[in-house]
UniProtKB/TrEMBL annotation:
This is ABC transporter domain-containing protein. Residues 237-453 form the ABC transporter domain. Keywords: ATP-binding, Membrane, Nucleotide-binding, Transmembrane, Transmembrane helix, Transport. Residues 214-235 are annotated as: Disordered. Belongs to the ABC transporter superfamily. ABCD family. Peroxisomal fatty acyl CoA transporter (TC 3.A.1.203) subfamily. Gene3D superfamilies: P-loop containing nucleotide triphosphate hydrolases (3.40.50.300). It holds the Pfam family ABC_tran. InterPro entries: AAA+_ATPase (IPR003593), ABC1_TM_dom (IPR011527), ABC_transporter-like_ATP-bd (IPR003439), ABC_transporter-like_CS (IPR017871), ABC_transporter_sub-D (IPR050835), P-loop_NTPase (IPR027417), Sigma_54_int_dom_ATP-bd_1 (IPR025662). It comes from Staurois parvus. Signal peptide: none annotated.
Length: 456
């Protein structure tokens, strides 16, 4: 949107400057034309201008609505980009890359289709404009021809006549044209240089990321051999002497942490604000690299393996069904409607049955932005309904129920444990301890303490 406004301001400035100078240019050249050709010259040029404008208006008719459509689609496409950028972490936790890629791609394709149509229509418009310009050059000779053949310049020699024609028709129009083209070209050149620079930066960053990914292969040991799968009960999340630091400032949050989380042994991570609780989850999800030590996760990330629920879940666009099954939309079975009962049950378990009537049904398209309309508590309940629907083996909950009351939180956690999920939770409330077997308490200066809350 900001870019659109900027572009509009630029167009308006150039338009305003042209509007201000055009009357003087027109007056001056009409006067010059009238001197050499009489009243016929300016009148025929103005007549030609009126005809040309009418033709131009006809050709411009279909271009304007298409241009408006293109602006809208461009806005939608940029909005989607911003939406992904703002919610990048939540989407990465949800392993929603494929869904978001498909949705963004869809918007890009419809934008490109509109742009193609626009280019086709603009071709006709520019053909019309160029023809108008070309015939305008001929007209300038015709206007000077009338006084010459009617005998006004009979007293001039051939060379003087030639000079007059050149002066009135060729030099003035051609030079003005040349100068305006050069000015247009230089502003285009500036735009191209700016875009090239920006794209160059993007390519550099992308190459750096690819190189970093090649350098660090998480599935391999330091000596290059693949990791061994853990035996039953060995641990699904293994942190071995791990030190976690913030990416840029390199401030150490957790020092030398060794920890194993196995099936049926839920872990609660607690500690003061900013102590690094969420950062441990970022490390587990592979979003942050560790400064030292090794992290192994022996179950696939995604809806049926490890599912992450952040404090504020990413609610993409779509119907209520799409919200609950997120991020499964693109691989949802054709017999999806058979699933209604399961979705409704998930909503019921998370206390959101009322949403069905509010939206007018599971598949009713809504014209609101989910994250703006739902309250923080409702957003968290909706995230839990995803969890109940997807039923992963492991659920990583980062203060996922912080906006709910203690009772509501306990109810949701009970459902999770009844479904047999192993939980890794970040939370502040003591009441959460009863749903976990281990507690990792983070202290200041990278210190930590691990204690058993109850037997598995
Ligand atoms: N992308 C980042 N770059 C630099 N520093 C960061 C980044 N993300 C978080 N931090 C910093 O790392 C520290 C730990 O952040 P983290 O989110 O892990 O805290 P937390 O223990 O989960 O806190 P809270 O209880 O408030 O959620 C904070 O001081 C935070 O400002």
């Amino acid at each position: 949107m900001t870019q659109d406004v900027e572009r509009l301001c630029r167009e308006l400035t150039s338009f305003a400057s042209k509007i201000l100078t055009t009357p003087f240019t027109l007056g001056y050249y009409s006067y010059q034309c009238a001197i050499s050709t009489g009243w016929m010259g300016p009148v025929s040029i103005f007549g030609y201008f009126v005809v040309g404008s009418l033709v131009n208006k006809l050709l411009m008719g279909p271009v304007i609505p298409r241009l408006v459509e293109q602006e809208k689609l461009e806005g939608d496409f940029r909005f989607k980009h911003v939406q992904i950028r703002v919610n990048a972490e939540a989407a990465a936790f949800a392993r929603a890359g494929c869904v978001e890629y498909a949705r963004t791609e869809r918007r890009l394709k419809s934008l490109i289709a509109t742009q193609k149509e626009l280019i086709y229509q603009e071709l006709w418009l520019s053909l019309g404009t160029n023809t108008f310009d070309y015939l305008g050059g001929i007209l300038s000779y015709m206007t000077i021809a009338i006084p010459i053949f009617s005998g006004v310049y009979n007293d001039l020699s051939a060379s003087e006549l030639s000079e007059l024609i050149s002066k009135n028709a060729f030099v003035s129009i051609y030079l003005v044209n040349c100068f305006s083209q050069i000015i247009d070209l230089s502003s285009n050149l500036c735009d191209v240089a700016g875009y090239t620079h920006r794209i160059g930066e993007l390519v550099e960053v992308m190459m750096k990321i690819v190189q970093e990914d090649k350098d660090v292969s998480p599935a391999e040991e330091e000596d290059g051999s693949p990791q061994e799968k853990p035996q039953n009960g060995d641990g699904v999340f293994i942190l071995d002497n791990v030190t976690v630091s913030t990416p840029v400032s390199e401030c150490t949050l957790v020092r030398d942490l060794s920890l194993r989380v196995s099936k049926g042994n839920s872990l609660l991570i607690s500690g003061e604000t900013g102590s690094g609780k969420s950062s441990i989850l970022r490390v587990l999800a592979g979003l942050w690299k560790t400064k030292q030590g090794r992290v192994s996760v022996h179950t696939p990330f995604g809806p049926h393996g490890v599912l992450f629920l952040p404090q504020k879940s990413f609610l993409s666009d779509g119907s209520l069904r799409e919200q609950v099954i997120y991020p499964l939309k693109e691989i949802y079975p054709k017999s999806g409607r058979m699933d209604d009962e399961r979705i409704l049950k998930s909503l019921d378990m998370s206390g959101l049955t009322s949403l069905v009537s509010r939206t007018g049904g599971l598949d009713q398209a809504v014209n609101w932005n989910w994250s703006e309309v739902l309250s923080p508590g409702e957003i968290q309940r909706l995230a839990f309904s995803r969890l109940f629907y997807l039923q992963p083996k492991y659920a990583v909950l980062d203060e996922a129920s912080s906006a709910l009351s203690e009772d509501a939180e306990a109810e949701l956690y009970s459902h999770c444990t009844q479904m047999g999920m192993t939980l890794i939770s970040v939370g502040h409330r003591r009441s959460l301890q009863e749903f976990h077997h281990l507690e990792l308490r983070l202290g200041p200066g990278g210190q930590w303490e691990l204690r058993r809350l109850r037997k598995s």
